[in-house]
Every structure is written in structure tokens, then in C-alpha cells.
Write a structure and sequence with these properties.
With 175 residues, the chain is mainly beta. It has one domain: Beta Barrel (Porin), CATH 2.40.160. It is built from one helix and eight strands, in the order αββββββββ. The protein has an eight-stranded antiparallel beta barrel with strand order 1-2-3-4-5-6-7-8. The longest helix is centred in the first third of the chain and has 21 residues. The radius of gyration is 16 Å and the shape is elongated.
Amino acid sequence: MRATIIGTFLVVFSLLGFTDTFGGESAFTLGYGSGVGNGSGNGRIENGLRYNFAQLSYVYERPLIKRVILGLEPLANIDNKPNSGLDIGGTAYFKFYLSREATAGLYCTAGAGGAYTSVKFPEQGTHTPFILQGGLGYRQGRIFLEARFFHYSNGGLEKPNRSVNSNIAMIGYYF
């Protein structure tokens, strides 16, 4: 756990220092998520347990080509239910703007990463799940809103390997 936390903070502070050098943008996000698509109804995970959390993340994005962005996102989730806990991790993602503008309007994202979670999810068999995510968002100026689907899985490295899925509504601000 200590290595994951130290690594996440090193990435964040490194990116903060290189934002101008690489021509990218930085943002902070705040979000709220709950279980979805786990077979037990909305807001729940397997066995009918309620699942919700708050998410705080730092975002660094760099244009690859017009309308296509590469993003890095160290994140922290504060888990509320089924048990209180903390998830620390990060994702890398691609963002594609559907409008003609390179950094405004409607966009979609897809990415992957990993995390350490202090919560013991019986569905996972591990405290270090992989993350797959996809989302749809809208940016106007420095502010953006985004809805994401978040998938935790251990990738078959441990047993059991049943997913923990959630949706996240986020608001962010570029600085």
C-alpha cells in the first residue's frame, strides 16, 4: 500500500511541474459513484449490499492529434458503503472530442489503470484490482461534467474474480 500511495503522489507532483513543458492541461475533479450492473439493482453490488463513494482526482491531459487527448488521472475514492475505506490508484485514458473544436463540447473517454483498496470486496479476492472505465462528458471553457462507468476486476489473478461495477457523476475544473 505504501508504494502505491508514494507512486501516485510522485506522478501527481511530477505532472504538476511539467504541465507547461509538455503543453498539456491540468484539472481537478470531484465525483460521486454508486454500484450499477452487479446483478443486485442500482446502487448495489453482489449480495444486495449498497455501494457508494466519493472520488477526488487530478487530471493531466495532453493532445495527441486534433480532438484526441491522452490523459493521466491519479485518484482517491473515499468509500462509504458497504464498508468505509480508501481506494488509491490511477488510470490512463484517451479522450475523443465529438465536436470540431479540439477541447470543447461533447466527448467520450476510455481507459484502464489500477488501484489499491482498503475495502475487502469478497467478489475480488484481492485489495489491488485493475480498473477499466468509459465515459461521456461535456466541456465548456474551464468546467466539465462527465458520467463514467467504472469496472473493478482482478483480471483472473485471484479467485474469486467477480466484478465490482459502478457509475460516477463528476464535475471538474481546468486550471
